[in-house]
């Protein structure tokens, strides 16, 4: 009715201008309201007064930013780097992971690894590749793939080598490149047990007898694991091992010796065994923020596209192709976000999330990304479970959250909040961001 009355007052040209003005006023109103909310819950929160903050909120349907606060500035994104890694994997690794390349002759099975992180991993009961190798009655020969990466990423903290979140990268990962030690009790006596027998002689106890008050630390240069007294109580731990012995580790696991100085015939092409659905790897990579899966996934993409395992080359390739049109070119150096050399803007992360939404079904994305009450946001957004799908990022002084938000009115938004140099607890920062994000969901 109002529109009919306006047509009587204005000519078509004037009505068009009026409509544009109305849309502009509405857009400005949303920006002002969100700006007020951002100030209240984030920018002026006591835990964030000295922090460096970037916030961008984008509506794909209107191709408009609802809000931008330093959205074009660079931040250390922590594990939000797994977002471009995930996109590359979804696009280039297909529905199933290439777990192993092999070539058979009458007597020899030549195998060439593909950097698949799921091989013999504790999380995956199905081990198609291992069963294939175990059941083969042929002699085995190892073919070295083209490996041009370092075991640690650029800018990783070297003194974290003993932490389970930073295993070495390798062309032939096995058991996730970590060993599990657990404390066993028999009567009044305690002993240490490992789940990889290959390292059974590598334990060097400085404590005798073994008690629950111990800690285990691997030596930096080799696979010797030292046991020390500790004030804490030990029950179980995962520790990365050096991967230069992985070929021998596989030999010991299979109970089969490798043939040496044997080379595959050049006139026969390698075949491939596919290990598991790609998304079965991407889901834990994104939901629990698995650094090892992310790093190996990027190397698998490199091997698939370039025929070489090189993180620098594949990142450079992706930045020049799939990500050439990002609003601001990132400094991207690893697959997981462990490095503080990574620098992304909120707008660039939104652009990557937008590409993901446009190229893959949202139902697939929802299965891969954590939602409220799951994964790394298991203690957050519980009231919004099923409406937010987002990737966290955490380093000392860094808290990030980027992803998708469905508002109560059914609008789909893409958002990115990057916080650097805060002095509060990560939980306090996440609670402040949570209030802000939930406010947007409830109002719009």
Strand content is 15-25%
Q: Looking at CATH, which topology of the largest domain would you report?
A: Beta-lactamase
Tally of strands: 16
Distance between the termini: 25 Å
What is the CATH domain class of the largest domain? Alpha Beta
Helical region count?
Answer: 11
Radius of gyration: 26 Å
What number of domains?
Answer: 2
Shape: globular
CATH superfamily of the largest domain: DD-peptidase/beta-lactamase superfamily
Largest sheet: 5 strands, antiparallel
Q: What is the N-to-C succession of helices and strands?
A: HHEEHEEHEEEEEEEHEEHHHHHEEEH
What can you tell me about this protein's structure?
- This protein has 444 residues and is α+β, with helices and mostly antiparallel strands.
- It folds into 2 domains: 30-91 and 279-443, Beta-lactamase, CATH 3.40.710.10; 96-278, no CATH class.
- Helices cover 32% and strands 23% of the residues.
- The chain contains 11 helices and 16 strands.
- It has helices at 2-9, 12-43, 82-92, 128-135, 246-254, 278-287, 291-306, 311-320, 346-359, 362-368, 426-443, and strands at residues 52-59, 64-69, 96-104, 108-113, 139-142, 178-186, 189-194, 203-205, 214-218, 225-229, 236-240, 258-259, 271-277, 388-395, 398-406, 412-420.
- The strands form 4 sheets. The chain has a 5-stranded antiparallel sheet with strand order 2-1-16-15-14, with helices on both faces. A 5-stranded mixed sheet has the order 12-5-4-3-13. A 3-stranded antiparallel sheet has the order 7-6-11, with no helix packed on it.
- It is globular, with a radius of gyration of 26 Å.
